[in-house]
User: What shape does this take?
Amino acid sequence: MARLADYFVVVGYDLDNRVEGEGQGRILQRFPEKDWEDSPFPQGVELFCQPSGWQLVPERQPASFFVAVLTDINSERHYCACFTFWEGLDNPQLKKTDAGDADEADEEPAVVQPAKVFAPKSLVVVSRLDYTEAFRNCLGLIYTVHVDGLPTPLETVIGNLLTCVIPIAGGSQIDESHVCSLGKVPQSPACDWLLACLQPGPDQSEDSLRTITLGAGDRQVIQTPINDALPVSGSSVAQLFRQLGIVNVLYLFCAALTEHKILFLSSSYQRLTDACRGLLAIMFPLKYSFTYVPILPGKLLEVLSTPTPFIIGVNSFFRSETQELLDVIIADLDGGTVTIPECVHISLLPEPLLQQTQTALSMVLDPELEFADQAFPPQSLQPSALKIQDKEIRAVFLWLFARLFQGYRWCLHIIRIHPEPVIRFHKAAFLGQRSLTEDDFLMKVLDGMAFAGFVSERGPPYRATDLFDDLVANQVERIRQEEACPHKVMNHVKELAEILFKNENPYPAVAMHKVQRPSEKSQNTSQSQAPFPVLDDVSVQLFIDHAIAKLKTAPPVVKAEMKSMVPSGPPLGDIIDRNGNVMANSARRLEVVRNCITYIFDNKMLEAKKLMPAVLRALKGCTARVCLTQELNQHVLQNRAVLDDQQFDYIVRMMNCTLQDCSHMDEHGTAAALLPLVTAFCRKLGAGITQFAYSCVQEHTVWTNMQFWEAMFYSDVQNHIRALYMEADDGEQQNNSLDQQDWCATEREVSALELAAEQNRLWPTLSKEMQTERVQKEESTVFSQAIHYANRMSYLLLPLDTSKNRLLRSAGLGDVESVSNSYVTNSIAGSMAESYDTESGFEDAESSDVANSVVRFINRFVDKVCNESGVTNEHLKALHAMIPDIVQMHIETLDAVHRESKRLPPIQKPKLLRPTLLPGEELVMEGMRVHLIPDGREEATGHMGGPPLLPAEGAIFLTTYRLIFKGTPSDALVGEQIVTRSFPVASLTKEKRISVTLPMDQFVQEGLQLRSCTFQLMKIAFDEEVASDLAESFRKHLHKLRFPQHVQGTFAFTVGQSGKLVLEPKTKDKNQSLRTLSKNLVKNAKRTISRQYVTRKKESPPSWENRSSFQSELDEDEISVSEEVDQTTMTLSSTIRSSDRQTMSNVVERACCRDYQRLGLGTLSNSLTRSKNEPFRISTANRMYTVCRSYPGLLIIPQNIPDSTIHRICRCYRQNRFPVVCWRHSRTKAVLLRSAGLHAKGVVSFFKSPNTTTAVPSQADSTSLEQEKYLQAIINSMPSYSESTGRNTLSGFTSTHMNTSDSSDKLRQPKIGDLMKQVLGSKEDVPGTFSRGGKWGSIRGSSRLSAYNPDIGTRLAGKESPQPNGGPNDPLFLRQQKAYLYIIGDKAQLKGGKQDSFQQWEVIPIEVCDVRQVKNSFKKLMKACVPSSANTDPNTSFLRLLEDSEWMALLHRVLQVSGLVVELLDTGSSVMVSLEDGWDVTTQVVSLVQLLSDPYYRTFDGFRLLVEKEWLSFGHRFSHRGAQTLGSQSSGFTPVFLQFLDCVHQIHLQFPMEFEFSQYYLKFLAYHYMSNRFRTFLLDSDYDRIELGVLYEEKSDRRNPQVCKSVWDYIDRLNKKAPIFFNYMFSPEDEEVLRPYTFISNLKVWDFYLEETLSEGPPFDWELKSRQERLAEETAEKADTAAPKSQRRVVWPCYDNVSKELPDAITKLLQDLQNLEAELGQTSEKWKDTWDKIKTTQRTETKLESKLSFSSSLLMSSNLSHQRRSQGVCLQESGVGSSIKLGLDCKASATSTPVSGRQSTSTLYSQFQSTESENRSFEGILYKRGALLKPWKPRWFVLDKTKHQLRYYDSRQDKECKGVIDLAEVESVTVGTPTMGAPKNVEEKAFFDLKTAKRMYNFCAQESSNAQLWMDSIQSCLSDA
Assistant: This one.
């Protein structure tokens, strides 16, 4: 029973006490005045009566009522029902003013004060019961009695209220009158009636019905709930959903469960209370345990900034003050919104549940929704009444919780039964079995306080049960079956709702409310009411005392508690391995695991080894892991726990693999199952020394997780306690031998919880001694387990080598959280305080030794579990004393084990293979055992077929030149192969640490990922035998070698020297910026260089001793090559004295004078004598590198420009790189110039037209004129300049050569204007308008109008365009001319310049790719070609990544610009390429143009010369772009040269017969460009090379012939030995200009980026190959004695070098020839001589044949011209032996003019005819009339009898057929007549018509006889058919 009301309080306005101008409330009276013992009076009631503050108001307000909730210090809730009315009083303000208190702070004289004001007064009932309606009625009655002056005294009513007692839940009946007559009050008839009511009638003896009266003629029935465990909600839940909607309330629900802060806003106080009550009701069975204040007074708003979670309600009046709360979810009940701040993430219910809950809720709240679309919706579809709906909603949430927590009782551990049950929840097991470990919501709920309370309340196995227990135990199966069917769910919900409603309203029919309300008159009266009287406290107290006395005499109420055993419900479902695939749990896999274990224990090691990889794969699945633990358990039971070394190793491997896939929570209990096993399996190491498995499986995080140990401990304790009672029961049962068997059968399944329930039931019946004995037994059981676990933990936490701090570092014991995954019941507050204790036992783990930290960890564990399981203090102290001894003892044991295990012969690991080294290459670090892990390339892993070569085990070697891995595959079936992967150290681009977990022999942890720009990736994991400091030292050495401090530290310089002499100059200032090179450094440089030259004798390079002395001088004044140097200080007159003949001749030779002479650009002698005939001369102005440091010493400039001018001009250009000539077209004599871009200041003034009178900046005046003169001089030097201009218009240029056959190659050129438009991307780009079709797009792919001059393209195309200078647009007035000089400039630089029509040069602005773009693109390309991990995401497939890298787009851009320049030069205009700094894109474009235009550069010598001239001499910054030294490390690797080689490769693919060198040659250069093996591609310019003395030493150094310093010499040497670089299809044609397709669709990914040979490493260091082959032969000879060898060879694409294993036909023949010569003992001839002989004999044969049959040679040559265009045939690659004839040079006859067309199918056909004559029975030129409105055009027609067709071509040489007329369709051939537009001056009879079924063709021959011939031939063809 409980009191209905604890206190009655009258609170009024405090007139005397105002704080800061705000009114206060004070308690006027309170009954009883003494606190009840069981319920102290709550503080601060007066604040809650007026939450918005106490104020006086000018008008009377209506009376109000609401219930506030106060929580006391013991977390008890007190419900304060406040009834407030307003009483009039005289305005205190006016009194004060009269009294002269003018200094009152809040006085405002401007406002007229009313005389009468109203003050609030509140009547408050404080109760621990929440009966809102009853309180509303009672307080209303008291107010009515007061207002209407009813005869009953107020004291009586209040006394009755305070003495009213009701049952809490279905309490027993009490039949005493509540109306106490003390003689004062007459007994009223109402009371008699009431007494009659209260007599128990036949149908009304129900516990839960209570009728009360307060003695004022009132009565009301209070229905107490049947079961008070279920919350009472009235209709508050339904109201909450109506106000906020389903989704919003679900958000609030999840937020409350996951402990967020929730704030309700409303202008109604009662609604706030209802909303809070509703939210708590739907959380049942969880109880909210944080701050809960449904109505918060304004004065206490600062509570909202508390850090803990809360549910609080605040009046909307204070809305503005809640705006700045950042982490509070605000629910506005009036507006129906829920605002979630950005920083708050609410975890929602797991998915199927969320959807199903929403569906169910919507069916409750809006049943019409389902039928809204039906034509005949059911009639009665109104939602239930609000009270019913409320219960239905709560039923949905009950159903939800039943699903969330189903099976929770199976995860409870009972760790003490007596004196009180202590229960823990095993969170990890629960989540694991529900496979919800990833679910954020459930994790948070289980970690929350509410769930802790749930476990403590519902954990005990013997207690009263309620609806939820029933649901979880008995309805789970029903819920599971129905969850998919919403209607069945609704039926279940309705059933539950009915129970809930019945619980709250046991007698819904009984409603006997009779309570008087105040009369209308008294409510509306405006006259003054009497103030509420002061009550007589004595009489009220008398009532109370009387009632207390009566209760004491009454018999005690004994309510038998209905305790019972709580059912557990069905166990959790089988483990669902969600992430395992379908195969994960297949029986076959489990079979494999079992077999393997059997083999191991039967000592069949070979069998076990074969199965091992499959077992390790199978152990990824959860079932296989469980299976493993079960199998191993059986072997322990058979007492075979002592193993030999190899068995031990295998078992440990499997355990490691099993543990490695466990999470730190161990949700599937795998680690728990292994824990007893790791202390069982062992091996004998020596006398009395045993090593257990635990010392080898410590590397897993699960062992350092406190929660894991707690769960394990509790689980074991539970088993022991169960065993304890089972034994006791056994003892009791023994005497009853008959039942024994039955009992065993049933009792075997008794769970610990059931047993505990039974014990709890018996507990009261036991004697004191028995009770004490049981408590002691349990306590000692827990104590013994604690000792056992202290031992176990020390086993797994102390590493084998205790000197290593390994465990603490890797596992991070420091941040162990002990927020446990289970909750305890008896001391929940204490345990939670423990669990939130964040103090970590290992904060100084690094500094302290291992033992201390382990002791501290175990101590914390012991404290926690012993406190929670009630171990006595004496025992706890004993434990603390024991732990350090246990740990120390264990450490001593381990030391012995460690010592012995060191002596063990290591497990048979593969022998480390030593790599073969190059001459001069030395090991820096001996091999370290590592595992090579597979990366994203799948070829080697065996996934794409083929053997699994990776992962492999071997060693990594670091040499002065390379990083080499050499080893054997881990897979035993491929074990005899050798895997090699290597790359040059200099090509390393990225190194990062990785942690690797591998199913290897040992548990590998540290690893490195090394990426190289030679498209190689090594992922290595260091073996456990490699100490971590060794790995660190490896990294440091690698870094030192990769970035030497000076270029002289690179391998190319140190090769052949002993390692000690590796130069590493110290730098004074590491952060020196490249751009700020001060003058004194340059002076020092000059001094150093002059010394260097003085020291030289006869051009031999200084010996190493001398070299190091120079170096020391270099150290003092470090030279760093700056991008912008102050040129004035740079006079190197002392460096090379002009008298030094030797040096000068070297300069002459080096500066590619041979090439200049070949091109006719002048000789040195010529330039000295200044012969004026030549337009150009070789200038020596830069011989001291004073003009431009990055240019060569000798330069080609116009004849009439003096050297002095050059000094002035060069200042306008970046880096002083002014325009110089680098090539001249042999036919058109147009020249190609290169320079850097202009400095920004000079741009505009330079390009302003000379005719315009714009003011130019004065500083630029003189230089601008000099520049113009210079450009004019270049234009004057062109032969075409002096000729007439008529021919130079492009339209004239093409039309004059219309019919002549020698211009046939011009006809297929694309129109330059079109080309230009494609490059510039002008508006007129219409697909299909260009001769090649398709759109090139602008250089950036942007179709914007060129920012500089949009009509260049139009002019080049010969179209008219409006005059830029506003002149008349008249073609006769000015025929637009082709410019003599085109300047290709950067769009960004050329803005603002105006073009003039009279000018003879023209600027083509293009957008250039930035160096940064190339760098980023290359990075992405590397990641695409060599991904670091296997890729499953389709968005990151190879092709997608390749596209994203934009590498192909960059190639397209460079090739496109080069193509445009080639066309311009070919039409006779000179071109100046003037982009960026003139050393990146400029070099690429200029080199490609020369390669495309000049066949010489497509030979070995020519290509070498091209690279030396354009790349080396003209100063491409190889060292800087290659990031070769420490200084350039930050700039990163930018492969500009590689991009150029890729472009050459693309051209080579399209024109395989034009290049003397093969594709391999390009790959070889690409590899060694990045390898730093040769000095060729080091340093940034000739100046730098002279400075280091390496420019001319290459040829003269003969001391170490083994070591080649130049890549070119090396290539020559190799080329003499073998035809590896030669292209057998080389068959050049004179003066052939190549015009490759440049669309991205025509470009191919270079296989250099994709291929790899794991058998030997990269195939570009030939000495290695020959050495490897020799070794292989030797081993083969030894092995020959064995069994006969098979002739079959398997070639694996990623393993073998395919071109070596399957050589092409010619190489094979040459090899066979050499072998035969060797066998016959002849001296073998060089391959080149053999090849040349065959070619010459072939030629003579061809000549003889041609005399006999002219047509056959014609066939051969035409076939050639087809063949060389075909992209498909590449003999070197495809190995077609029969086509050898095609590759020979034949003397091209007149007919085989070069044609670069593409093959079409019809022309391909012609290759297979016997002779040409059959093929072309008649041919010649005819004019053909075009289709409608098109002109007549001359075409070359061929009449073909064989194919029975008439074909026509653009010209005789054209191989691309432009159209075909099938003779089968021809109906007649007749004489025609001339029509409009026909050719003039042709006689009429020359016309004839050809009529086909489709159309009429009109032809015109040159003369009538010719026409007749054609007609006859066609006729004869027709008649033949």
